[in-house]
Amino acid sequence: MTDTTCDFYCGKILAGLQEVPVYFQNDRVFAFNHTNPIWEAHVVLLPRKHIDSLITLEEADNDLLLELMGTAKMIAADFMARYGGARVYTNLGDYQSSKHLHWHIGAGSQLRPY
After folding, report:
1. 49-83: pLDDT as tens digits
2. Where are the domains of the chain?
């Protein structure tokens, strides 16, 4: 397992050391409005439990994954209603800047390149 103190999401966001605009949260998942968004609406969704990436999920994480996907569905439905479309994706390997499982959910005009 990765040293979670070096992980931006565990070490800063979930530890409360960096304030972010919360979109949704409960005891297992956390979603916040990206502080440097790529799109007009841009939410980052992550589990509170440290998991390195999508491919390191274990069978014991199935309930958590279902909860994450249900939350992604809720956010995407909100964006669909407001913008007529949505993007939902996660990065892996060299494309994953923070080694903590997370999804980007975006909609609206692109504000900067990604």
Report:
1. 999 999 999 999 999 999 999 999 999 999 999 99
2. 4-110
CA 80 from centroid of its chain's CA atoms = 18
Pick the CATH number of 4-110 from 3.40.50.1950, 3.40.50.150, 3.30.428.10, 3.40.50.1000: 3.30.428.10
Phi, psi dihedral angles at 58 (to 5 degrees): -115, 165
**Could you tell me if residue 93 is left (phi over 0), alpha (psi between -120 and 50 degrees) or otherwise beta?**
left
Query: What digits encode the pLDDT tens for the residues 80-102?
Result: 999 999 999 999 999 998 999 99
Cα→Cα distances 99→10, 20, 25, 79, 109, Å: 10, 19, 20, 26, 27
Cβ neighbours of residue 62 under 8 Å, at least 6 residues apart?
none
